[in-house]
Amino acid sequence: MAAATPPRSEQPARVRRFSRAERWVHRTTAALMLLCVATAAALYVPQIAELVGRRYLVVTLHQWSGLLLPAPFLLGLASPAFRADLRRLNRFGPHDRTWLRAARRRDRRPESRPAGKFNAGQKVYSAWIAGAALVMLGTGLVMWFTDLTPLVWRTSATFVHDWLSLAVGIVLFGHIGMALADPEARRGMRTGSVERPWARTEHPLWDPDDD
After folding, report:
1. CB 32 within 8 A of CB 68
2. Which of 19, 43, 161, 198 has its CA 20 to 30 A from that of 66?
3. Residue 154: which of 163, 146, 164 has the closest Cα?
4. Bridge partners of residue 199, in order along the sequence
5. 79-84: which pairs have CB atoms within 8 A and are 24 or more residues apart?
6. Residue 53, by phi and psi: left (phi above 0), alpha (psi -120 to 50) or beta?
7. Exposure b/e, 52-70, CB count within 10 A at least 16 = b
8. How many CA atoms lie within 13 A of 24 on its CB side?
């Protein structure tokens, strides 16, 4: 028989949101992604390129940070908590459609934005950035190993890589901006736990005691 849920007065003030492995995956992926964006800016923006110089070093850092980008995710699959959250991110329910409709209407009332452990915006972002990273990796490899593909492939890969990198930069900085606006969400990613009232307000369909 399942244990009865303790009354609110007896529940701990903070609840576990992310495991150590999940936080490691997030931090390492973020560092590699920011290095990719920073080196891309140093390669494509003339003013930054002149300031930084050392183009060969910048190219090398850009190539290897991009190549290593999937590594934290692949290593994170060894963590049961990470795999469980991946399943949550990959499931879209009626409440997620309700959340997106409220977001389009700019309705910020908590009751109009039902969410489980991850809200619909986080699910859309994670799916988009994962797909973009795979496309960037594939096109980057075509550009790197120039002798293995015909010219038309390299030209197309360069076009896709350049414009998608701009989109990734915009979306990534939007993600950072939203994180800066929510100190408790940042604290959850930094320490692994969040305030229980915040969890009830922002993610009312998530029961932390079931994790």
Report:
1. yes
2. 19
3. 146
4. none
5. 79/19, 79/21, 79/22, 79/25, 81/18, 81/19, 81/21, 81/22, 81/211, 82/19, 82/21, 82/22, 82/25, 84/211
6. left
7. beeeeebeebbbebbeebe
8. 14
Contact yes or no for 206/117 (Cβ under 8 A): yes
75's tokens = 């290593």
What is the residue-wise DSSP string for 134-178? HHHHHHHHHHH-GGGS-HHHHHHHHHHHHHHHHHHHHHHHHHHHH
Q: Give the distance from CA 188 to its chain's centroid.
A: 14
pLDDT in tens, the chain (211 residues): 444 555 555 566 889 999 999 999 999 999 999 999 999 888 888 788 777 778 888 889 999 999 999 999 999 999 999 999 999 999 999 999 999 999 999 888 888 899 999 999 999 999 999 999 999 999 999 988 888 888 888 899 999 998 999 899 899 999 999 999 999 999 999 999 999 999 999 999 998 877 6
| Residue 14: its H or E element | strand 14-16
67 to 32, 89, 143: CA distances (angstroms)? 9, 24, 13
User: Do 85 and 105 form a contact (C-beta atoms < 8 A)?
Assistant: no
User: Can you read off the two tokens belonging to residue 85?
Assistant: 């959250």
How far apart CA 165 and CA 160 sit, in angstroms, is 8
Q: What CA–CA distance (Å, rounded) separates 113 from 61?
A: 41
